[in-house]
Input
Amino acid sequence: MSKRNFELQGPAIGTSGRARAGSVHIGHIQDVAAVLRLLDELREDLNEAKAPTSTIETLDDLRVEARKPRPSKDVTTHLMDRLADRGLGEQMKDLTKAFDALF
Output
């Protein structure tokens, strides 16, 4: 499927008509999907490694934040800082880049 730059017109599905026409951009949807995919992969790796529950809960909190229409950069930064000292290295770099696309 080719990536095209277009906007959804009319109220977005699932918004009860509160979203204005053109307020949901397909590029943003792709960015959110990329973040969610990375979080899922990281969660699987951590489950296999039997990571502490607090680490997995932090990933779940990041997932909730990523799904918000306007994720908070402050909240995301705080959660990413909590993960930074967990030895996730390269995965954290990818996740940081993916979240940066949301802002």
User: Anything to note?
Assistant: The two ends are 25 Å apart (CA to CA). The helical segments are 26-48, 53-67, 73-84, 90-100. Residues 5-26 have pLDDT under 50 and may be disordered.
